[in-house]
Amino acid sequence: MSNEDKNKIKLTKEKREDMISAIKTYFFNEREEEIGDLAASLILNFIIEELAQEFYNQGVYDSYKYMNDRIDDLLSIQKY
Description:
Elements: H1 3-7, H2 13-31, H3 37-75
Protein name: DUF2164 domain-containing protein
InterPro entries: DUF2164
Pfam family, one: DUF2164
């Protein structure tokens, strides 16, 4: 398994179908366009391949900051 395969976001079939449906609904509600499953799937693939890493990295950073703040809180209860 290549490093690229390990880093790729994997979705369950059900979650992928939900996301495709959400993309189709968005286009219909916001742009008054009906797009098919293929077009929505291609948009989802683009988001996963090109954009998702930034959201993931922001989540990791936010978690890191949160945990560091909690560690600082823990150190404040030391007894001297």
